[in-house]
Design goal:
Blueprint lengths: L12 E7 L2 E7 L15 H24 L12 H7 L7 H4 L1 H12 L13 H22 L3 H19 L1
Antiparallel strand pairs: 1-2
């Protein structure tokens, strides 16, 4: 394929631009691909200036969004609606900013908002039973501390049943 500009040399540089959803492709040789020869190319200076302008305007937008009580990350400026559209968080602080909403989502998807990990298929049932036994003992202690003896009796019975199943 020859260069689109000089029509003499082989095109070794292939540029693809997508601006407002419109895709344009250029195929140029090394000599014609000089960056100063592009009038419609976006310069890095303009790009970074746009980013700075966005960050300066961010403080105003945070206050405006915060007035509406819409969850928004103070660090990166991501709103919860923005997260819902992309399913991606903007930074580590987003986890704290959207914690109540994320807890609900994780609980719906995974059945829990805690990571319980994976278990081997052969010994997985034993490990799960052991974990359940530990949780029941913890609940038993809490019930006794709160003097909720009827609840404690239920936990005691579940513990005895689970220990009986594990011994078989």
């Amino acid at each position: 394929m020859n260069c689109e500009k000089c029509q003499k040399n082989v095109a070794t540089v292939h540029l693809t631009q997508i601006i407002n959803g419109e895709k344009t492709e250029r195929h140029l040789c090394d000599k014609c691909a000089d960056p100063s020869s592009f009038d419609d190319a976006i310069s890095f200076q303009k790009f970074f200036q746009g980013l700075i302008d966005m960050s300066v305007g961010f403080s105003k937008s945070y206050e405006q969004v915060n007035e509406k009580n819409t969850p928004m990350c103070k660090t990166c400026g991501l709103t919860f609606e923005g997260f819902r559209k992309t399913s991606k968080l903007g930074c580590a602080d987003c986890y704290q900013a959207f914690r109540p909403q994320l807890d609900k989502i994780l609980k719906n998807i995974h059945g829990s908002n805690h990571n319980i990990g994976k278990f081997p298929q052969r010994s997985g049932a034993k490990l799960l039973a052991k974990r359940d036994l530990e949780n029941l003992k913890k609940q038993l202690r809490i019930s006794i501390e709160k003097e909720e003896y009827e609840e404690a009796a239920k936990y005691r019975d579940k513990i005895k049943a689970l220990e009986g199943d594990m011994n078989e």
